[in-house]
Amino acid sequence: MTEEMNKRLILEQQTVIERLCSSHRNGRIGHAYMFDGERGTGKEAVAIFFAQLLLCSNPENSVPCETCPSCRRVSSSNHPNVTLIVPDGQDIKKEQMSKLVYSMTKKGYESGRKIYIISRADRMNVAAANTLLKFLEEPEGDVTAILLTDSYQSILPTIQSRCQRVSFLPPSREMMIDRLVEKGITPSMAATVSMVTANVDEAFRLAGDDQFAQMRKTVLKLVEASDRHVHEALLFIQSEWVPLFKEKEEAESGLDLLLYAYRDVVASKADLQSTAAFPDQHELFKGLSMKMTYSRLSANMEAILQAKKQLHGNMNRTLLMEQLVLSMQEGLLVV
Ligand SMILES: [Zn+2]
Question: Is residue 189 part of a domain?
Answer without folding.
Answer: no
